[in-house]
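Revision sheet: structure tokens.
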Amino acid sequence: MDTVASSEVDQESGTIFFEAVRGRQAGREFYSAMCSFATIYNHFKFNDDPQIPDTLKAQRVLRVSRIPEMGNYILNNPKDYIFSSITVSVGGKVGFNPAPGQGEDGRLGKVILPIDAPILINDGQHRCAAIKYAYEQNPSLGNEKVSVVIFEDRGLKRSQQMFSDLNKHAVKPTKSLGILYDHRDTFARFIVSLANDVDVFHGRTELAKTNISNRSTKFFTLNGIADATKYLLKLKTKSIAAEKQKLAVDYWDIVSKNIPEWNLLVQKKVNPSELRTNYVHAHTNVLNALGMVGYVLTTEFPDNWKEKLKGLRKVDWQKSSPIWEGKIMNDGRMTKTRLGIKQAANEILQHCGLNKTLDEFEGNR
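Predicted:
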């Protein structure tokens, strides 16, 4: 057995024990412990474990496709990966031995679990699965530890409510914030750089939210720029070559120079809120359409796509224009569908002198 597992498991007494801090919440004791990867691998139960009755299953179905990516995150970043706490319920009597000198009510000590008691994951099922995946690939990770919040739940009757309570109030970070804070993903790093390097994006990009309030001085969102640039470059890997980076910077710069209202925005002669009220190009669906247009133009016309973009000057970008109705407008209101964005891109392509649609272009490649 792994030496770490041995240090946390006492076969003679039939117990598992961890260094822990004891606290009270809603009148019940709980424990915050340090648990090794080895013990998680050997003792933590998943929702699909046959030992757990269906009536007591308290987690969403494990999405197996997520596990390799999360596990490889640990394996590829052994010096600086980070995992947040896991929450579990123990279906048996939980004991606690205060450290020497703490007294009976001491908060520091060791939490003791029956070795045969089911330890059911309430929150962090995918993190646990990733830990098991990484441990299988590299058993030396058995010494790694993660914090685990432990609740006693004899019979595991409360586990389903605990899962509901833990997830009901969870707030997932916005896509923009995920891009901004992701220092490992090369595309995310490039998008943050792009938002600074392109004049019309600089200082006008909402970095934290995925939508923009009416009074905001921002005009673009970071996730909108990211999605549109994915359409432009159609990257097949997470890496992004220097020439692709230059193409994206050049493309968005030339686009901005050929949309009159964007020029006024750069010159501070128009308020972003005015453009959001009256023009379709102030919304991410049109930014995505421009990304699709860019892929066609830079692929079909590698030497003169910049000239083709002069056609943007001829487009009536006002929301009141009938060319957008049924595409990205519905009874005068902006809508966002994949089909509508493609139809908007086809409209823009026509103004840039192309007679083929996106589908026809794709079909010929």
